[in-house]
Amino acid sequence: MDNTRLTRKMLGALGENYAREHLSSKGYRIQAQNWRCRSGEIDLVAVEGELLVFVEVRTRSGSARFGTPQESVNLLKQRQVRETAQYYAHRNQLLHKQQRFDVISVLTEKDGGLRTIEHVCNAF
């Protein structure tokens, strides 16, 4: 990227794209990105084998000295993701599928370059 400072929205979108590439490289089939309904948003919905995986992506630039991105997924956020996931599964007739909730933590350089990516399966 160039020398312009990344906005929070740009950083989030960049992190989601890194997460999407990571999942795809591991054989996950991406079903949706930024899926929204009244109860909230799910960053990524993927399928791994027969498992429906809902992924919360958290991105930070710089260092993790103020905590890791995944530490910011609090109980309120977990509840919101679960509710939204249930609606997604219902709407897409996928209630029969086993579900898992993952968190992908992305740390970038100040310019947006990927520093680290950590995938926590079954995070909540």
From TrEMBL:
List GO molecular-function terms, semicolon-separated.
Answer: nucleic acid binding
Which Gene3D superfamilies would you find in this protein's record?
3.40.1350.10
| Pfam families associated with the record | UPF0102
Family label? Belongs to the UPF0102 family.
Stated name of the protein? UPF0102 protein CBW46_001405
**What is the organism of origin for this protein?**
Paenibacillus xerothermodurans
